[in-house]
Amino acid sequence: MPKPVITRFAPSPTGFLHIGGARTALFNWLYARHTGGKMLLRIEDTDRQRSTEEATAAILDGLKWLGLEWDGEPISQFARADRHRQVAEELVTKGEAYHCYATAEEIEAMREKARAEGRPPRYDGTWRDRDPREAPEGVRPVVRIKAPREGETVIHDRVQGEVRFPNKDLDDFIILRSDGSPTYMHAVVVDDHDMGVTHIIRGDDHLTNAARQALIYKAMGWEVPVMAHVPLIHGPDGSKLSKRHGALGVEAYRAMGYLPTALCNYLARLGWSHGDDEVMSIDQMVEWFELEDINKGAARFDFQKLEALNGIHMRQTDDDTLLGMFVSTLPHLEGGQGLLDRLDDKRKVQLRAALPGLKERAKTLVELADGAGFLFAERPLSPDEKAAALLDDEARATLAALAEDLSAVTDWAAETTEAAVRAFAERTDRKLGKVAQPLRAALTGRTTSPGIFDVLAVLGREEALARIGDQAKQTTA
Q: Which superfamily is assigned to 6-69+234-300 in CATH?
């Protein structure tokens, strides 16, 4: 019976959860869920100068917001340093690694000599087979792996295919520094083995590390996990992804008003595909995800595609769920806390009623908040420049007359107010737009909004008539 799949996401807490890391986490999570396995979380916090608790908290928060919950407790790599040292010394005992006493000056001289002879500048293995009794006093050694010098190391990668590395290029790299701290190359192997990781899914910038890490696995007699190295995300122009392209922290995407489900959908499609399917639910992604369907070529980030996809997800999300997402996101949107502070029970009911119209016009929650602004406006409204231009004396006189007709509507709803407005336009020989445009300006302070009759219904009879009256009264001002 095959072992259950265990993947891992292993970020360094030196900053926020960036978009490339989020996609790596997503692929690990999808594959674990697809196979009925687990995704573990390891915080690679061995760089004590750059690692911060704030960054760790931001990474955990970003994963939770995306819905990528991990199994078990997060593991600190730094806390496992004793175990890393133990394995390094075990490798020395087994004859698979050795203590190296070469000084920094000696190593630099080796490199200079290699450069002069046209060879790669690297350590030459001086202490590889030397008697440790020759060790100089006062020099604390590093521990180096004994890399094979002939043949090749082959990585059978589920994305990249068979990748071969000549062993002559894999020098005797350091696994334990002279201060007793493990190198990244070594700590990762020990942690992945001890955590029972069966599948390593990570960016292809780690592909060259795979060969070196495979040497440590084999030296310890451990099984090498399945490798899957995913191409990196590039900008729209094919260059390395930068902040101007979208290389931002996940929290920036939340602040820009993207739904976590839409962002996961977009990230999944960056380098992975399932036929021609573009819009996918989380359940569908879990059902369809296979490592072999990951593309070998780099994916290109496109904000316009993300925005369009987000708009589709917003329209497909039921109104109660979208309302909950919107309210929980408000503190993260620019100016959103002010809206949240004014979101009393009455406005929440109005917002829920307005959502069907609002989400048809919005591609992000920022645009949704902007469209819903009229619900939070305080009387008397201050129309924006375009709306104010519509509200000339003739328009205000029209509003005053229309208010009388609307006041007679008792069963206040979109259908009844529409009937009243259309009847008023016909009776006064006006085109509907000549009535609806100033009406919209009076009710929302803008020239664009959800359907004007929906706006009337959402605001309610009392508030709508009051807003119309505020503008109509200014005819004599």
A: HUPs (3.40.50.620)
Which burial class, exposed, middle or buried, applies to 84 when counting CB atoms under 10 A from its CB (0-12, 13-18, 19+)? buried
Spatial neighbors of 409 by CB under 8 A, at least 6 apart, are 416, 417, 420, 461
Residues in the chain where the model's pLDDT stays below 70: 243-247, 475-477
What pLDDT does 477 receive? 43
pLDDT of residue 243: 66
**Phi, psi of 26, rounded to the nearest 5 degrees:** -60, -45
Residue 243 annotated in active site: yes
> What pLDDT, in 10s, does the model give residues 106-127?
888 888 887 888 777 788 888 9
Classified as helix, coil or strand, 396 is helix
- How does strand 97-100 pair with strand 174-176? unpaired
Looking at domain 78-230, its CATH superfamily turns out to be HUPs (3.40.50.620)
CA distance 359 to 5: 40
How many whole angstroms separate alpha carbon 258 and alpha carbon 191? 35
Return the percentage of the chain with pLDDT > 70, whole number: 98
Residue 103: phi and psi, rounded to 5, are -80, 170
* CATH number for domain 385-476, candidates 3.30.450.20, 3.40.109.10, 1.10.10.350, 3.90.1150.10: 1.10.10.350
54 closest CA partner among 3, 14, 107, 98:
14
- Are 230 and 202 in contact by the 8 Å Cβ rule? The answer is yes
What is the number of other CB atoms lying within 10 angstroms of the CB of residue 404? 10
Choosing from 94, 243, 386, 431, the catalytic residue is 243
The per-residue pLDDT for 110 is 86
> Is 243 annotated in some ligand binding site?
yes
